[in-house]
Design goal:
Helix 7 (329-343) packs across helix 14 (553-561). This protein is of the alpha+beta class and 573 residues long. It has 14 helices and 30 strands. It folds into three domains: 2-168, no CATH class; 291-450, no CATH class; 451-572, no CATH class.
């Protein structure tokens, strides 16, 4: 291993030369308190920045072992350190100093969620931070002086103020780690209590805007559970916490427009993730496999058994292995539910506003006008009880326009001026008093989940365009195919999307053999990630990625299902 003096000598030697001379600095350097690894050097100032790692021995970093003694605590610590690096980059690094990305140092972007990421790795022996650096140039000429300022001035300060325990706000760090552990404990406890979601009293649910996920600053009404649904949970660090527990079963969220129905559902759908201190939703948790379902006009569907909801098509086409290049609202919503069941879920989340009306309900008058023999769609209202009774899958539905759902609901929560009320008894009384004469169109027929097997060559990357590249949160360029994920609503981080692209490649290369089902493939990838870390999905061996965040199996499955080149065979189980 070389030392920092040797790095300085190389930089002086290549000063003023062509940009490719920067390749000479690739390697590892001992800086005394840390090791700098320059893993990849960009070939051009406009190319993706160079990848670097700094490794600080624990005898220097000094983090107490109790801060990373379990997976939840380790996740919290690594998340905190990533945020610390990001804050200090903004304060220490001067930024653009030349052409293209010259002079920039970056770490993975972070949002309101605490996620497993590859940006910082903490072990008993070291703390490793992974960043990118834009090596400075004027045009395509090396600016060694400015590079030395970055390597020998800014980077050591960044390490000292971000990765050394004694220099951090230890109280804030401990709070962050303890909260991550509390959320993990809470998510496990609600399952033991027979709940699918928990919203702590005092939570701030509304966000600043549709593009700003931070809590609303003014005017937000703190959440307060109705007495009938209030439960207490004791957590390791927060102690006794009271809030609204939503039991398993069928739950309606009702109320007038703009009274907070969708805001509550949105908080529940994001409750599959942990949140940072100050987010307002720190103790809003949901079972980890909950899936938000919506209509998705235009999506492709590949051999999905949607027959529990759609059958007897006029052209005689079977819906047990239904395919289309351009799904309607109802067929897409049916496919989304069946795909979620295939990958695995215990809770469906549905908002009437983003659903296909004819999929959700056919009222008594429409039933009399259009006979069931002429209607292929079995509405969700007639299947929601079967989902729970046969498969144990609960549902939370935001309903504003159809009181027919009172008949099938186990509980009804009304949002009134952002305050929840348990109106189950009143809703049931109304249902008894005002009979709709609506006839249940099916009842008790089995809902079978068909497990599909991806055909390996259908996802092969061939020809000149073999790259997989994420483009923001909702788009992955998979070879020649543009994978659109706009309506996969529980993707929350662009780095999850980046990971999904490489997970698909990894799954194709290792587990898609024409015999293994999609669910089994995803389970095997998840097992590898658990055992070896997210690094395992990186396409280039030896080049450690710092820009992944871990997605859930549900979003991995959703992405694969939306690939327009996917072809499958079916295996009825």
């Amino acid at each position: 291993m070389q030392n920092r003096t040797q790095l300085e000598n190389v930089l002086r030697r290549i000063d003023g030369r062509g940009y490719k001379a920067y390749k000479d600095i690739q390697g590892s350097y001992d800086f005394g308190n840390f090791i700098l690894h320059i893993d990849h050097v960009q070939g051009d100032p406009f190319a993706s920045p160079s990848r670097i790692r700094v490794v600080v021995p624990q005898k220097v970093a000094g983090f107490p072992q109790e801060l990373y003694s379990s997976k939840p605590r380790k996740k919290g610590l690594e998340d905190f350190l990533t945020r610390q690096i990001s804050k200090n980059i903004a304060r220490i690094v001067k930024g653009n100093r030349g052409t293209g990305k010259s002079g920039q140092i970056s770490v993975i972007s972070v949002g309101q969620e605490i996620l497993n990421r590859t940006s910082v790795l903490v072990t008993n022996s070291s703390v490793e931070a992974r960043m990118t650096m834009g090596l400075p140039a004027r045009g395509r000429t090396v600016l060694a002086g400015q590079a030395m300022e970055m390597f020998f001035g800014e980077l050591p300060r960044l390490v000292e103020q971000s990765l050394i325990y004694r220099n951090l706000d230890n109280a804030a760090l401990l709070k962050h780690v303890n909260l991550a552990e509390d959320q993990w404990v809470l998510r496990n406890k609600i399952k033991e209590m027979g709940l699918v979601a928990f919203i702590a009293n005092g939570s701030i649910l509304p966000r600043r805007s549709g593009v700003d996920d931070r809590p609303m600053e003014r005017g937000a009404v703190p959440f307060k559970s109705p007495p009938e649904l209030e439960v207490m949970v004791e957590l390791p660090h927060a102690g006794k916490v009271w809030g609204m527990g939503i039991p398993k079963g069928i739950t309606l969220i009702v109320g007038g427009g703009y009274h907070g129905k969708s805001t509550l559902l949105h908080a529940i759908e994001r409750g599959v993730y942990d949140h940072i201190p100050g987010d307002g939703r720190e103790l809003v948790v949901t079972v980890e496999d909950a899936v938000k379902i919506r209509a998705e006009d235009g999506r492709r569907v590949e051999k999905v058994d949607i027959s529990p909801f759609i059958n007897n098509l006029p052209n005689g086409e079977s819906t047990k292995a239904f395919s289309t290049e351009n799904a309607s609202g109802s067929t897409s919503q049916a496919a989304n539910i069946m795909e979620a069941l295939e990958i695995g879920t215990s809770l469906l989340l549905i908002d009437e506003d983003t659903s296909a009306t004819n999929f959700m309900i056919r009222d008594a008058r429409m039933q009399k006008l259009v006979h069931k023999d002429s209607e292929p769609i079995t509405p969700f209202i007639d299947r929601v009880e079967d989902l729970y009774e046969q498969l144990g899958v609960s549902t939370i539905i935001v309903v504003g326009g159809s009181g027919d759902y009172f008949d099938v609901a186990h509980r009804v929560i009304m949002m009134e001026q952002y305050v929840p009320k348990d109106v189950t008894a009143k809703a049931k009384a109304i249902a008894q008093e005002y009979k709709t004469d609506r006839k249940k169109e099916v009842g008790g027929q089995p809902i079978r989940v068909t497990h599909r097997i991806p055909i390996p060559h259908s996802l092969s990357l061939t020809g000149r365009k073999k790259k997989i590249k994420s483009r923001g949160l909702d788009n992955i360029q998979y070879g020649h195919t543009n994978l659109i994920l706009d309506d996969v609503e529980q993707l929350v981080d662009v780095n999850q999307t980046r990971a999904i692209g490489d997970i698909i490649r990894y799954a194709m290369e290792n587990y898609m053999d024409g015999k293994t089902t999609l669910k089994e493939i995803i389970q095997k990838v998840q097992r590898d990630i658990e055992e070896k870390g997210l690094d395992v999905i990186a396409p280039f061996e030896g080049l450690h990625p710092g820009d992944y965040a871990q997605p859930r199996p549900q979003e991995i499955g959703a992405a694969i299902n939306r690939l327009r080149i996917l072809r499958v065979t079916t295996n009825h189980i």
